[in-house]
Amino acid sequence: MSEIVDQINHVHRKVGTREVPEGEARTVLLRRAYDAAIEDVWDACTDQERISRWFLPVSGDLKLGGHYQLEGNAGGEILRCEPPRLLAVSWLFGENPGFSEVEVRLTAEGEERTVFELEHVAVVPPGMWDQFGPGAVGVGWDGALLGLALHLADATPADPEAWQASDEAREFMTRSSELWGAAYEASGAPADVVASVVRATTEFYVPNA
């Protein structure tokens, strides 16, 4: 296993539910530690230029109450911003996105180590959840946490787009899909349901796997 693929083992994953005014929401939680000061991790997650280097190009008014748009992906409003520990945004994609929010929480563990938590809470159409389960968004978030890890370590691939098509990336996404299946089963999902959503998620992210 390569060092990049091994990064996936540094992440703790949890799947759950939460009641919101719009109904029952699904939750996915990712937690890992980075060997970087909390101020550096916060800056990487909130500075427009740095976000584009490890995640996606972003535009908008990046302050409390402002709106942002990630290129080719989600957009929304900045709901809470409490430097350097808490950032919460609405996470809206498509014409009828429904309720979807992402919260990032940072905790310092000494001067050069930071615990990073990302929780995505969304009301998911039943058909989509039944088909893909938590891996539908979980695999993408695993990729984001990998990007942040490489950025903080100054080890981002010279050509990220080429890496996305590599065997290493395919292995990373396959392993991510399997680990989200394990987290889903730990939440109480039946084994046959887990096997089905892992298969569908892997086929989506890694065609002809």
UniProtKB/TrEMBL annotation:
Q: Which Gene3D superfamilies match?
A: 3.30.530.20
* Pfam families, per database record: AHSA1
Signal peptide start-end: none
> Which protein are we looking at?
Activator of Hsp90 ATPase homologue 1/2-like C-terminal domain-containing protein
**What does the similarity note say?**
Belongs to the AHA1 family.
Q: Which SUPFAM superfamilies match?
A: Bet v1-like
Q: Which organism is it from?
A: Streptomyces malaysiensis
Every copy of the Activator of Hsp90 ATPase homologue 1/2-like C-terminal domain together lies at 35-148
